[in-house]
């Protein structure tokens, strides 16, 4: 091998060593990514379904083309239903991954990487129209030093809802509002629970209270102020 070729190979090896290996995702992150990817798939399928339905409306009823498009609509509806069922399974997988991660962290360091700072033991669900907010918490990822409001929103109605968002007021230890955080999903299918994660940027955040739902940009009437505030972290 020529001298310059050897130098070139050594340079490439050195560059790869300097860059290092990409960080391996945790099981929780894998499951969160799976939910995000599945949501994108469901959104794309719904857009396609709407386009095909619009095409069918322009065709003469009973015509061969009308019947052909009708079969395509039925197939897309079936795929949408299957994805909704798959979503429920992914949510359960994410919950299980989070539980195992917390147990593993407690067993090794007595401090789980994701610490719930204000999780009420039996928080009542909040329902407005076809949306139900189940228990939510302000969590801290001690590995990354970030906070987020996490929980689940369920579509209890018979129809898919577009551009669903959930928002929270973030409070400090003195119950002063330090900001509003939210998360959004493009489409929430009927009977599906959406595992949301609203990133909190203010380190002073100590608790969170539900603010409002929105559907397609339209607010849903929020509850009376102060009725859904999560308690502050123990000892803080």
Describe the structure in your own words:
The chain has about 240 residues and is an alpha+beta fold. It has two domains: about 25-110; about 115-235, Immunoglobulin-like, CATH 2.60.40. Helices cover about 40% and strands about 30% of the residues. The chain contains three helices and nine strands. It has helices at about 5-20, 25-55, 65-110, and strands at about 115, 125-130, 130-140, 145-155, 160-170, 175-190, 195-200, 205-215, 220. Strands 1, 2, 3, 4 and 7 form a five-stranded antiparallel beta sheet that branches. Strand 8 (about 205-215) and strand 9 form a beta hairpin. The longest helix is centred in the middle third of the chain and has 46 residues, at about 65-110. The protein is globular and about 65 Å long. The model is unreliable at about 5-10, about 110-120 and about 225-235 (pLDDT under 50).
